[in-house]
Amino acid sequence: MSESSIRIPDKYSGYALSHFCVPKHYEDDLEDIMIPWGLIQDRTERLARDIFQDVRDEPLTALCVLKGGYRFYTDLLDKITTLNRSHGSVSVPINVDFIRLKSYENDESTGQIRVVGGDNLSGLRGQNVLVVEDIIDTGRTMEKLLAILANHGPKSVRVASLLVKRRQGSTGYRPDYTGFEIPDKFVVGYALDYNEYFRDLNHICVINENGKKKYAITE
Ligand code: HPA
Ligand code: MG
Q: Which of 45, 65, 130, 153 lies in disulfide reach of 125, CB 3.0 to 4.6 Å?
């Protein structure tokens, strides 16, 4: 099942923005680049292989947790379907499905999750579900989502998360597949947002105080 993930240490200071390309409209809003896009791709390729080997011929329903998970989801599924094309002895039929949750405002969890969109979850009955998420932070969102999914009678549920944050107050929840274990910093890019901004940034970056202020929601 789960391979150990890549651990980004607390002391790691990332790459300078000047080493890679970032959109001009975000240049003043980022501290550094924590995970460049290319490294995300390489790691995702390996997660796809691990998932492919674990599933072995069983149809898989890949459930994208929107919006933050959408880039990881499309890249992960692309890589799984590439393995399917190789005509080896294993092949994994894939259904796609989407769910939309909301739990964050500014850089704080609101403590509640709301399912605000997606298909009727009753379609998950009897399915092998792979939940695809961008980040596990406190773990509470995922634990609540898993409880919701369990009510719909799936055959199995596995979770792939690109990132897991090391933070105080974590429930201790660990996904089956993890891309990177990261320090307790607020990250954006590669579809991870801060109040809906930064999804259009390829690399996973650390937001700075300027960015937090500029895009804050004020009552
Ligand atoms: N960035 C974006 N979204 C998040 C984060 C984060 O660090 N933690 C939980 N949701
Ligand atoms: Mg998310």
A: 153
- Based on the number of CB atoms within 10 Å of its own CB, is 114 exposed (0-12), middle (13-18) or buried (19 or more)? exposed
Q: Which among 137, 176, 184, 193 is annotated as catalytic? A: 137
Q: What is the CATH number of the domain that holds 160?
A: 3.40.50.2020
State the pLDDT at residue 2: 47
Tell me which residue has its CA closest to atom 9 in ligand 1. Answer: 137
Whether residue 219 is contained in a domain is answered as no
Instruction: Tell me the percentage of the chain whose pLDDT exceeds 70.
Output: 94
Domain membership flag for residue 1: no
Check if 137 is active-site: yes
The whole-model pTM stands at 0.92
Domain count within the chain: 1
Domain that holds residue 161: 6-214
102, 168, 184, 186: residue to mutate for ligand 1 pocket, most atoms within 8 A of CB: 186
